[in-house]
Protein: S-formylglutathione hydrolase
Amino acid sequence: MERIERHASHGGFQEVWQHTSSTLGSGMHFGIYLPAAALAGRRCPVLYWLSGLTCTEQNFITKAGAQRYAAEHGLIVVAPDTSPRGENVADDPAYDLGQGAGFYVNAAQQPWARHYRMYDYVVDELPALVETEFPASAARAISGHSMGGHGALTIALRNPGRYRSVSAFSPIAAPSRVPWGEKAFGAYLGADREAWKQHDTVELLRGATERLPLLVEQGGDDEFLESQLKPELLQAACEAAGHPLQLNIRPGYDHSYYFIASFIGEHIAHHAAALR
Ligand SMILES: N[C@@H](CCC(=O)N[C@@H](CSC=O)C(=O)NCC(=O)O)C(=O)O
Structure:
């Protein structure tokens, strides 16, 4: 493992590390913000952030402005790249499949199955690495944006007890029923839609055994709102299952990191309260 960036930020450090992931069979980058308390050797709770389509580990750490709030609350924030990478890793010319579009699933179909195992990477390998190599405690929270919002919600719902809190910005709430999800799930998981249910928030809510409250932020002027995100399906599924949901629709905000930066402080405060 090698540190490739280090920047002083709000009394702590924003770093980027690269390592060889045994799960993905490829090199992987992740960003990690270490607050002052962690630098002093105290074990700090960790917020995992999952980014969206076309992103690397850089988008969140350079655009969201999360460091200020992570410093305030003494949280480590870990932001991995969104897929395996490299010349030997399968890819597709479209922005919504292949490298930069891992969708936080374990692919079962060729040519993706060898490397595209972002579900296992985020749930198992990355936290094990972070909790061994950094002053991180096992108190975890998870959040993300768009494809990463889908990743955060599905991973939390499938792993009761593993995360103390979950939130999402503009999540793809019902990927089985929208073009981004249908394309990615068809390619990575195959034609059998039964297998898709394990990666669909709206489907998972039906059988959830832990009612971890969902905090969801959604821009009212998001260009993908009706075609890809469908928060109304999330709301209906939560109501039907009796699952606690705080859905904040923010008029005028779009799908961009300007929206995330506007509300990331509130989400970090929410996670910090659960992680204390
Ligand atoms: N057609 C666009 C789509 C890419 C895009 O909007 N990506 C979002 C996430 S969308 C869902 O996962 C994003 O976070 N972009 C990076 C950023 O820094 O804004 C395109 O290809 O541009």
User: Anything to note?
Assistant: The two ends are 30 Å apart (CA to CA).
